[in-house]
Specification:
The complex is a heterodimer of chains A (170) and B (411). With 170 residues, chain A is an alpha+beta fold. Chain A is built from two helices and nine strands. Chain A is globular. Chain B contains four helices and 29 strands. Chain B is rod-shaped. The chains are: A alpha+beta (170), B mainly beta (411). At the A-B interface, strand 5 and strand 9 of A face helix 3 and strand 8 of B.
């Protein structure tokens, strides 16, 4: 394990305790007050049988780790009226699901969200939308994901809708 | 090792051949039993393409057949929903994978080389002659149709799927089917060629944050033709009446030589109602008589003849179908010499019937009778009269009292 390098660049004004406090306040608000819960279905890439040439799998052949409930700030884009073929074969699907997740929260759960994993979002009492992760937001090296320039504290995860035949819950 | 035995009775083609095959095709083309081909219009060609795709482009994926949307997709929105609902999810979106057939709205003038631009102006051409019979009258109907209109229809067969393996199977089936670039579908018994134009991949691979799928288009051109039964013509041909006429010979001109001591010729014509001049084809040396339907005609009144010529000219055309008899001697001059070298003479004697006797005595010994008429109606020897003595003629029937009897005879 590599050595840890303490972050001291803002220590006169914003220390690690301050950072932890801010994150804690945010989590209290997000997890306690807002309480937006989602379910993460992580793909078990080792146990899933893949096609030798293309690495594709058939329907219901993907193996998953046990699903985990987690909290995140949810933003769902507007659906877009699209077509497969120049005005023909139209479809209207939900827009992308954009999640903001505390890095600490994922660390507490002991999970990671990876490209290709599936996420269930209870849209209403009787309907769960499933999405697949198209951008796992692992790269957080920008100002937006840093708290006052101290260090990254959340990830932005973008997901696209998954069709029924692709994934419909475990 | 012996020579391998060869089977010589392998039936390679099990269908019908030659005339039977043509009749089979004709029956398919004229399925509606009208003796004319059934219409082949745009929707028939579209249905033919759809059937072709449904029957041939069968891809099994995940143990299931990739569904083909069973309609030609148009721009009408509700129609697509109606046609695809069984393949749709809860949001009304088509479940992937699927295959759709899209027809381009613009139907172009055809390029089928067998029927392209050969006959202008939509002329009607003979297709069939069909006999008719209405119980009393026999006839025929002439069926005419114009040349079919060649059309090119462009179809795009689109597969949307999520696995490259599905694309491979679909691609293999199409390339096998179109290994010679074209295939055929059958539309109402007609073989319609379909040509593969190109294959395009429109998969949205540049879209990284959206849903990803494969989308490939296979473009085909159907070299079809239009046959519209509204353009057909059925016209009755000349009807045939069943008329019975009895003739000695089935000709309108014949000659008969009376076996007298000299050759007397009877030329017979059947009048057509318009003809006035009748020629016997040889010089008439001595014209004995001219009769229409057995009724003697008066020279220079009813008909005209110039001695030595072959022609008889009537003042007015004899009625259609009537029999014209011309009795003549064709010698070079008016001298009659019989087969024994004896010189004969001809004369005509007239009698008025007074009811007392049917026997008439002539002035000369009869060599042979050329003609005998009662009031101008020629009598047949053996039926109307008999030569009963050297100078004697006896009538077989009783004429009306006062009838005029003329006897022309050689002596």
């Amino acid at each position: 394990m590599s050595n840890k390098l303490p972050i001291t660049r803002l220590s006169k004004f914003f220390s690690d305790e301050d950072f932890s406090l801010q994150v804690q306040i945010g989590q209290e608000y997000l997890h306690g007050d807002i309480n937006q819960k989602l379910v993460l279905y992580r793909v078990n890439r080792q146990k899933t049988d893949k096609d030798d040439v293309y690495g594709e799998v058939g329907q219901d052949e993907i193996k998953y780790f046990p699903p985990i409930e987690f909290n995140a700030l949810v933003k769902v884009d507007a659906p877009k009226n699209s077509s497969y073929k120049s005005g023909m074969l139209r479809y209207l699907e939900p827009g992308n699901l954009v999640l903001s997740v505390y890095i600490k929260h994922l660390a507490d759960l002991g999970v990671d969200i990876k490209y290709g994993d599936y996420i269930g979002y209870p849209e209403s009492e009787d309907r769960i939308r499933y999405y697949t992760v198209t951008n796992d937001g692992k790269v957080t090296s920008d100002n937006a994901h840093h708290l006052f320039g101290y260090k990254p504290y959340y990830r932005t995860i973008t997901c696209a809708i998954a069709q029924d035949q692709e994934f419909r819950g475990v | 090792m012996g020579i391998p035995k060869r089977k010589s009775d392998i039936q390679i083609y099990k269908g019908k051949i030659l005339t039977q095959r043509r009749e089979e095709l004709l029956n398919k083309i004229t399925k509606s039993d009208s003796y004319l081909p059934d219409s082949v219009l745009h929707d028939d060609l579209d249905a033919g393409m759809l059937e072709f795709v449904t029957k041939n482009f069968i891809v099994i994926s995940e143990g299931k057949k990739i569904p083909v949307i069973p309609k030609i997709l148009t721009i009408q929105r509700w129609a697509q929903i109606m046609n695809t609902w069984e393949f749709s999810d809860d949001d009304g979106n088509l479940k992937v994978p699927f295959v759709g057939v899209i027809r381009r709205p613009d139907v172009q003038p055809g390029t089928n080389p067998s029927i392209i631009r050969t006959i202008p102006e939509r002329l009607q051409f003979h297709y069939a002659s069909v006999a008719t019979w209405n119980g009393t009258q026999m006839g025929a109907d002439i069926y005419k149709i114009p040349q079919p209109v060649p059309v090119d229809i462009t179809f795009e067969v689109t597969i949307v799927c999520t696995k490259l393996r599905e694309l491979n199977r679909f691609n293999k089936i199409i390339l096998q089917k179109f290994a010679s670039r074209q295939a055929y579908t059958i539309v109402k018994g007609h073989y319609i060629p379909i040509v593969m134009d190109k294959i395009e991949d429109n998969s949205p691979i540049d879209q990284i944050d959206g849903r990803r799928f494969y989308l490939q288009n296979y473009q085909f051109t159907m070299l079809g033709f239009l046959i519209d039964q509204e353009e057909f013509e059925v016209k009755p041909a000349v009807s045939r009446f069943f008329l019975m006429n009895e003739f000695a010979k089935n000709t309108n001109f014949q000659k008969k030589y009376i076996n007298k001591r000299i050759d007397i010729t009877v030329a017979t014509f059947i009048a057509d109602g318009m003809q006035t001049a009748f020629g016997v084809g040889e010089s008439i040396s001595m014209l004995f008589n001219v009769a229409i339907n057995g009724l003697l005609q008066e020279r220079d009144v009813d008909f005209f003849h110039i001695a030595g010529t072959s022609k008889i000219t009537f003042a007015s055309p004899p009625p259609e179908g009537s029999t014209v008899n011309v009795t003549y001697y064709k010698g070079r001059n008016s001298v009659f010499i019989d087969s024994y070298g004896k010189t004969l003479q001809v004369t005509t004697e007239y009698f008025d019937y007074n009811g007392s006797t049917l026997i008439f005595t002539l002035n000369n010994a009869i060599d042979s009778v050329v003609s005998l008429d009662i009031n101008g109606l020629i009598q047949e020897e053996g039926a109307g009269f008999e030569i009963t003595d050297e100078r004697e003629i006896t009538l077989q029937g009783t004429p009306v009292i006062g009838s005029r009897i003329g006897v022309t005879y050689l002596f």
